[in-house]
Amino acid sequence: MLNTKQSSFTHFRDKVVVITGAASGIGKALAEELVESQAQVILVDWNAKLLQETEAYFKSRGGKVCAWEINVSNLADVQEMISSAIAQYQRIDYLFNNAGIGIAGEVRDFSIEDWREVIDVNLGGV
């Protein structure tokens, strides 16, 4: 059952909302508010395990959610997800392009592939 608190996101009621990076952090917190406001939330993330857990959590609380496991740096996958969402819901009202990654530690310990992945997700994904 959804929380009885009044969401400050009431204008999202019955809207179709896509959130990238939705399985954790800011994306998950945003999804929680949108689920509380009774939006149809499309959860997008590349971490399959966290995404499944997040989807199950919101569904167990009565949320209208579905999940898409994709890497936002893969344009073809993003286009397929958008097309499928529009086919299923006839529209997308809002898209929160929240996905982002970081690497931690000393710069000398990272490969060029590490940096490319950050750039591909954080810049290319947006």
Task: Give your account of this protein's structure.
The protein is α/β, with parallel strands linked by helices and 126 residues long. Helix content is 42%, strand content 17%. It has helices at residues 25-36, 48-60, 75-89, 112-124, and strands spanning 16-20, 40-45, 64-69, 94-97. The chain has a 4-stranded parallel beta sheet with strand order 3-2-1-4, sandwiched between helices. Strand 1 (16-20), helix 1 (25-36) and strand 2 (40-45) form a beta-alpha-beta unit. The chain starts with 15 loop residues before the first strand and ends with a helix.
Short note summarizing the structure:
The protein is α/β, with parallel strands linked by helices. The chain contains four helices and four strands.
Q: Structural class, please?
A: alpha/beta
Oligomer: single chain
Output the strand order for the largest sheet.
Answer: 3-2-1-4
Q: Uncertain segments of ≥5 residues (pLDDT<50)?
A: none
Alpha carbon gap, first and last residue: 33 Å
Tally of DSSP β-strands: 4
The ordered H/E elements are EHEHEHEH
Overall average residue pLDDT: 92
Profile the largest sheet.
4 strands, parallel
Question: How many helices?
Answer: 4
Strand content: 15-25%
Shape: globular
Radius of gyration: 16 Å
Helix content: 40-55%
Furnish the topology, listing elements before pairings.
Layout: E1 16-20, H1 25-36, E2 40-45, H2 48-60, E3 64-69, H3 75-89, E4 94-97, H4 112-124
Parallel strand pairs: 1-2, 1-4, 2-3
